[in-house]
Amino acid sequence: MTFAAVIGLLVFLHAIGITRPAENAVVYALNPVFGKVYYLSSRLRAFYYTRAAQTDSLREIAELRGQVASLTEENAKLQLAEEENRLLRQHLLFLDKNDYHYVIANVISRGDLSGDLSKTETITIDKGGKDGVYAGLAVTNQNGIIVGKVVEADDDISKVYLANNSKCKLAATILDDNKTSGITEGELGLTVSMGFIPQDTAVEAGDIVVTSGLEESIPRGLVVGQVISVSRESNELWQTATIESAVSPDNLVIVAVLLP
Amino acid sequence: MYLRIIFYILAIVGLVIFQIAFLGNLPGVFSAINPVLIVLVFISGLGSFESALWWAAGAGLLLDIYSFNVFGLYLLGLLIVALFINFLQTSFFTNRSLYSFLAVTFFAVLGYDLIIRFIAGTAALMSGQSLSFFGAGYGFFADESWRMLANLFTVAVLFYLLHFVFAKFKPIFLLKYK
Fold it and tell me: What share of chain A is helix, strand, coil (3-state, %, to 5)?
């Protein structure tokens, strides 16, 4: 009976916000420990996957060697283009459009405590409202590739839905001649699909998908992934593209939240 | 007395961190292990009912602070499971055999998961989200099977470890003494 009263009192005090400073103090004090333990666990996880992947490595190496040859040629062309681009920017005093405001955050937990979402669909980071983070902001990896979206933010921690989460919807556009727009969402925690693409638009495997900038808090041009297949049904109004994400959710340890 | 309280607090904090940040990130069946619940089963079996309630309250509170679910979910879930375990241990599984611990763990894991999903699902539905209690298809039952096996195996290992270290209780078959 006493415990029931204590629970009721705690829930009530939490609801009206009286216990919030104490909760924030606990989270603030424990976040570094969470971060370190998570890092240790990530190392162990990476070691496990490395060992598990060894059997596939030889086949993959053969495939990659073929890709390296073609990419080397492509890289040479891109380097020339980059150099040309750099010179043009200097000449035109072009503003670097990647000058984002951001906050760096550590991943401190993976998955949902209640088990509703798998370990590859959601993460918790150690930055929250106090750092300017709020729901709807884009989260990227170290290469600036979008990995997901903040869905909920407390004072010191935030919950992020990864791009492969079916609840994570992003306004995106395909880098083709038509600048086709659509909405991406996760599929079963494995891939990302992009829907609402008009039937008369030519979308092909290999096309790059980026954020469209139509969402208020997410800038245009963040890479979502690459189209690997397109589903066209003659009786459907829209076509759907399946996108391979450019980032693996397994390797996320440090992420950046892009602030407006 | 104070040392005992400090030890309890440190143990709760350590185990919750271990569960959320370490085990939760591991692949496969390791992430299905629930050390907070397992320790609750052992405290109920080897310690006092009051200690189990304090453990459930402390661990539940910390889990709630780090959870984005409705506040009080884990606090309530763990306390209900602590009461349930006590009922099972005083009414049905009165000895301290391995099989008693495994049976209690089975019902504790099942009860805990059902309570958590029911409360979280109800809260989600009340807030207008379309969240089913058991997910699509057989996902819940497959996950629950793995979770059950992982926790039962961990309890068995811990039981033999405690038996080996403390020799306080022996793994015997469940026998009825009259």
Answer: 35, 30, 35
pLDDT in tens, B102-150: 999 999 998 898 888 888 888 877 877 765 555 545 566 777 788 889 9
- Closest A-chain CA to B67: A113
User: What is the nearest CA distance from A243 to chain B, expressed in angstroms?
Assistant: 23
Q: Is the dihedral of CA A156, B15, B101, B60 positive or negative?
A: negative
B103/A contact by beta carbon, under 8 A: no
List beta partners, residue A146. Answer: A140
Q: Does B36 touch chain A (CB under 8 A)?
A: no
Q: Which of B12, B40, B49, B66 to mutate to test the interface with A (most CBs of A within 10 A)?
A: B66
Chain A and chain B share a number of CB contacts under 8 A equal to 99
Among B98, B95, B79, residue whose Cα is nearest residue B36: B79
Instruction: Write the CB contacts of B79 (distance below 8 Å, at least 6 apart in sequence).
Output: A3, A7, B53, B56, B57, B60
Name which CATH class applies to A169-249. Answer: mainly beta
- Can you tell me the mean pLDDT for B11-16? 89
Determine whether the interchain pair B20/A116 forms a contact, defined as Cβ–Cβ distance below 8 Å: no
Whether A102 and B7 have beta carbons less than 8 Å apart is answered as no
Domain spans of chain B? Answer: 2-166
pTM of the model as a whole: 0.64
Please provide the CATH number assigned to the domain covering A101-165+250-259. Answer: 2.40.10.340
CATH for the stretch B2-166 = 1.10.1760
Q: Please give the residue of chain A at the shortest CA–CA distance from B113.
A: A114
Joined tokens for residue B116: 């958590």
Strand partners, A231: A240
A80/B69 Cα distance (integer angstroms):
52
Which residues in chain A have Cβ-Cβ distances shorter than 8 Å to B72? 7, 10-11, 14
**Chain A touched by B95 (CB under 8 Å):** no
- DSSP H helices, chain B, are 2-17, 35-46, 49-65, 73-91, 98-126, 139-166
